[in-house]
Amino acid sequence: MNISTKILFSISLFIFLVGTASAVQSCQTYDDFSSGTLDASKWTESIFHGDPFTDEHLIKNGFYHVAQNVARDAETNLAPTRQFIAGESFSYDVLYNGGSGNHQSQPLINGNYPPSQIETCNFTTAGCGAIGFMNAFPDLGAQIGIYHVKYEFFSNQVKMTAIRPDNVTIVNTFTGNSAPYTLTINTHTGHNGLMNFDYDNFVICSEQTPAPQNDLEARIAQLEEKIALLEEKVVELENKNSELENRTTSLESSLAGLKKSFDDFVKKFEKFIKKLPKGIRKYWN
Asked: Which residues constitute the domain of residue 137?
């Protein structure tokens, strides 16, 4: 493969890799409740079991705040107004301020508790993926502090990754549903439950959309300019290579001429020695 072919092959490979590069994640804040009110274009509040809303469910001190101050069955469900598709993720922080009796914060996927999961859930009483207490502690426990929660959506499963206040990471990969997904944060109490939760820093990540056509055309123009410069350098290298080959041929020819002259000289000298008288010739042997 000559120099020109190698460079052109490299250019073609580069263009192919640019065209087939994997999409990257583009993330943006979905809501941080800085407006002071719940944005109805982004959120829906509802109940799930027919129980009344919790005593408190509102924007308070820059958080979405849910609290039950009197022991009873109560709940508040908070759901984004949009659906999620494969390749997207949704994350947020949960500040668990405390509680007693039966109370939990946990996800509903497509309107219900996840029916199954890949990992073995050893917390069969209180379940997995929940924060609080429900006749027993769930896998995420009830630690005072901030939980970091992230959901990654795939075509037929949702991966929930939670980092507890003690920095222990717990993963629950829920199955039994398929995209598109709805996600609801179900915060509720049992008959004897009190609780205090704050939610904040909701971030959504999606696959980055393709660049606008004019950007692609600009990139193509830049590539064409670079290819033109590379082609000029290829011609320059090939000219230098040709020059080196000519000089090599000239040196080889000169060397062959010198060798022939030396061989001729040796033959003539040998003939000269043979013509000398024997008395003199013996000194050359």
From this structure: 25-207
